[in-house]
Amino acid sequence: MSEEPSNMYDEFRHGYTQASGVRLHYVERGEDNASGKRLVILLHGFPECWYSWRHQLIALSENYHVVAPDLRGYNLSDKPSRISDYKLGEIVQDVRALIGHFGKSEAGIVGHDWGAAVAWELARESPAVVWKLAALQVPPLAAWRANFTFDQLLRSWYMFFFQLPRIPEWWLGANDFAAIERSLKQTTAKRNVFTDTDIAIYKAALREPGALTAAINYYRANLSTLLRRRPGQSDASEELSVVRVPTLFIYGEKDFAILPETVRGVDRFVKAPYTEVRIKQSNHWVQQESPAEVNRALLDFFDRV
Question: What is the CATH number of the domain that holds 49?
Answer without folding.
Answer: 3.40.50.1820
